[in-house]
Amino acid sequence: MSDEATTDEEKGIFGGLFVNKHVEYIKSLDKRHDEIEYWMTEHLRISGIYWGLVALHLLGRENELDRDKIIKYVKSCQNTDGGFGGHTGHDSHLLYTMSAIQILVMYNVLDQINGDKIIAFVKSLQDESGEVSGDCWGEKDTRFAFISVAILSFFHAVDQFNMDGVIEYVRRSMNYDGGFGSQPGGESHSAQVYTCLAALAIAGRLDIVDRDRLSGWLAERQLKSGGLNGRPQKLEDACYSWWVLSSLKILGRVHWVDRQRLCAFILSAQDTEDGGIADRPGDIADVYHTCFGICGLSLAGFDKYPLDEIDPVYCMPVRIAERAGLRSWMNNVPKTWK
Amino acid sequence: MCETGEKCDSGNDNVPMSEQDTWKDVAPISQDDGANTICPIAYTDEYREMMGYLRAVMSKCEVSQRALDLTSRVIVVNPGHYTVWVYRKKLVEELGSNIENELDWVTEISEKHHKNYQLWHYREALVSRLLDPKAVSEMTEEQLVVHPVIRRELFFTSSAIESDSKNFHAWSYRQWLVRTYGVWEQELGFIDTMINEDVRNNSAWNQRYFVLMGDGRGRPTKDAGSPMEGSLADSEIDYATDMIKLAPNNESPWTYIVGLLVRHAPAKLYTVLLPKLKELAADGSEYAAAMKTTPFYWSALVDIYEQQAKDLPDQADDLLAQASEVCDVLATDHDPMRNKYWEFRKDQLVPNI
Fold first, then answer.
1. Has the ipTM of the complex gone over 0.85?
2. Dihedral sign, CA of B27, B31, B32, B38?
3. pTM of the full predicted structure?
4. How many other C-beta atoms are found inside a 10 Å radius of the C-beta of residue B30?
5. Which residue in B161, B255, B265, B277 sits closest to B213, CA to CA?
6. Residues A225, A238: Cα–Cα separation, whole Å
7. Transmembrane residues, as ranges (chain A) (predicted)?
8. Which residues of B touch A212 (CB under 8 A)?
9. Does B81 lie at the interface with A, CB-CB under 8 angstroms?
10. Taking CB atoms and an 8 Å limit, are B252 and A172 in contact across chains?
11. Cα distance from A3 to chain B (closest Cα, Å)?
């Protein structure tokens, strides 16, 4: 066959989305042992695998990673306190416990680990007032409020937690612009907005949100390039395609941004030679932005390739969330929002 | 520690650790790759060696100066390695290290890694140990701001914010400092300086709300919905509109003043703010053109008319009609990218019955 006869689709390019390149890029990440970055990111390796696996799922290519090897690796990251570290031999942290569980849920093997120990680990990180730390280091943040609630929900153990304390902490982190910060008083930031909304969604307390003001603020995050930023006067970045759009999805207001222009921005941040997506055009791609860029395309309704639908609370495919019994948050969305 | 000028041969990057006397009794532990990789380790020799020794001392929970020195080296290269911070904290406590020196070391690390989460939290812990907030709770703010520990932290955070004016971590830390030691009044001066340097600095606008209205912890605070003093509302309207004049197409003061008034003084939206905005946008005003081309001006009008219609039912029809026209202008002329949003806002403009 001559070169001229090769169509974009045969090359794995669909409406400008370089599917095959991204799959090859993600598969190559575990083999880049000659690059110092590989070793410098060791402490978050498990999250890297999670981001790669989500991206592959959305692309319908999840079988291209070695399932058994990954499951064995994830299990090797669990510590005696029940939590998971970012890599074998690293301390337990909520961030990596979340990634570990999300991977195990995607592979449908959550029953292979001891849930009671994980629940105990999560509960140990909440103080009397309901605020949650990420680990024994003690840093508190609305990210950890969300993750703790999400992890417990995987085990249907939310009722074992001081949920009123969590909700109160999130409520106090709500600002005059309708957004949420990393803690009470902190500036609104769209990634923190996502964590707060997702926590409230699981808790069934989205009613405390100023839906219209927050949705308006989130829509304001779109810049002329079509890309979204995280807060006022900051640059657009492909990862906010996820943080902003997942929030708008929970709020039922995805259509308030210009989705076509957003898709065009995300596609412009692709590395069309070596695969992967960067924060913005011309920068170096990484697996985090690759994952959240593709999540953004899915939420924005990119229709040139059959991307799997993503759950805006749990950040994994809807069909997997359904299988794991994690879609009940949708029943708790205020009736007036529907 | 090497970075603070103390003698420390483990910090000598020219001599491999395996050839240094300090480390001759330790056998480095190579990377446990779990089940993740089948390829041989190939990271740079220096990093590999350092991590090997780190794993070795951590595996036996060694408490020693050389272990502390080693954590310095690892953190300088890779501050995101959160496990090593926990080990370092334990070492500092058990060795009884000088906290002032430790704080100096954190300051040095901050210059290079100001977006690292761990070091900011660690700083809080160290400062709390140096100066117990309970021990100074009786002091006045004038006394507190000249206390060496607080003065240094105010200076440190203002320098960090000056070099990266929207640094999320630095502003959070500053909030902790202001709240923990109760140095609220000086903060308004700092915020003024930051807003004067860059009127678009949204972090500074957020800090203004934090100082004036509190955050629900520590200071007498105003929850959303609780009224604020009328004179404060008036002076904030003056302040925000002065800043709007400097750069009308700047989201921050618009969001600030509308958000503040909606929460704490809704009637001021139409009794005080509206006439001021109309004056700025009136024919003949030097700001007229700029005001009329920024979506924030029109967007504020929708918020204001909506509130006014809610409070004054007998004028509601007229006010909602005006708001509706403004939504059309936004959807078609000034903010077409968000036309779906403006269409929604328009649909919401119905009188409260």
1. yes
2. negative
3. 0.92
4. 12
5. B265
6. 11
7. none
8. 345, 348
9. yes
10. no
11. 36
